[in-house]
Write a structure and sequence with these properties.
This protein is mainly α and about 120 residues long. The protein has helices spanning about 1-10, 15-40, 45-55, 55-85, 90, 95-120. The mean pLDDT is about 90.
Length: about 120
């Protein structure tokens, strides 16, 4: 059972997860506060202003950091739910393969999301 736990935890610890959750929450909060401030201070925002804002390198970096933060934050949260509720005790012997299947699905969806966001932000 120890090997399965190690495989599905991907070598992380509770402290690292907790710190990552807090750090990503701060990045997302900074983004929301900034965008809210920008939208409120520009009530007649037009496409040119929005394009100028999002063309600036600092905004591109903030967009990428925010998307990365959302992905990390979601991964940790969903991993915790899967490891708490998709267990052998609750689902029997099919729990571990099912949990790994869902985790691989989450990784795939997250990577697609990140690549799509990078393409939008940087126009790759």
């Amino acid at each position: 059972m120890g090997m399965i736990t190690n495989v599905t935890s991907f070598g992380r610890s509770g402290l690292s997860d907790w710190l990552l959750q807090r750090a990503t929450a701060v990045v997302m909060a900074v983004y929301v506060v900034f965008i809210t401030y920008y939208l409120l201070s520009n009530p007649n925002l037009d496409y040119g202003q929005w394009l100028a804002l999002n063309s600036h390198i600092c905004m591109k970096v903030l967009n990428v950091l925010t998307v990365l933060s959302i992905a990390i934050h979601a991964w940790i949260g969903l991993w915790a739910v899967l490891t708490d509720y998709v267990t052998v005790r609750l689902l029997g012997p099919k729990a571990t393969p099912l949990r790994i299947f869902f985790q691989l699905g989450m990784i795939t969806i997250t990577l697609v999301y990140l690549i799509w966001a990078l393409d939008i932000v940087w126009g790759i």
